[in-house]
Design a protein that fits this description.
seven-stranded mixed beta sheet, 15% strand, Adenine-specific Methyltransferase, domain 2, 38% helix, 7 strands, alpha/beta, Rossmann fold, 2 domains
Length: 276
Amino acid sequence: MKKNLFPFLKWAGGKTQLLNQLEAKMPIGYKRYFEPFIGGGALLLDIQPKKAVINDINEQLLNVYIQLKQDTEAVLREVNRLDSHLCDEKRYLELRAKYNEKIQRREIDPECAALMIWVNKHCFNGLYRVNSKGLFNVPYNRNVNGRSMNEENLRNIGYYLRENDIEIRHGDFEKACRDASSGDFVYFDSPYIPVSETAKFTNYTKEGFTIEDHKRLAKLYRQLALRGVWVMMSNHNVPLVYELYNGFRIIEVDVKRAINRDATKRFGKEVIITNY
């Protein structure tokens, strides 16, 4: 029986509010589901395909999915331990430093997964940002109380990942799609093209995502379409999108953006692009 699953992290560009529109524009049938920029996984967790390939360049993010699949209870124990004390700024900075130490040592384990969940709940605006060294540097949000997780949701996510054919890959989006073939469905929710020339590209990984990456992504989109793969993408409604994806179906949608310092800029338009 399909359970109600939802993202365990607040993630910039999360697609919870667009789920109905995205699902209405998906192909009726497909073989495998690919999501090369998994992020918070809102669409994956809602449609719950039985065969899927999920990928991201952010190793710490993927570690949460991996640990939930391997041993959900170990992650729950670690998050409960972190939640057993009130969080003031001193504790937040101490645990943020510990999380960064684990990143530097590449200690990919249940504790690292729990720390990522915990800092996401206690950092400013739920923002995930790293510096040039790949270290998490978002300040404290002054949330002293509050649970960092929904245990039932995490258990259900772990169960879904274990009981279905869900392959978790780490790396570049091109590599993630290397074996996508005719009849498969790929959903690209990449870092968005900036809405202005002065806006910065995302830095949720130390590598960032450049204009050249967007051009590579557009080239891959066309290659997948030629292979007979169903492809859908979401992005900002900006001129460069129309240039890069000329010839494909581009549909405008209204959105409310949860992560923006200026509340007056939390509304805008995005697009959904399909090759069918």
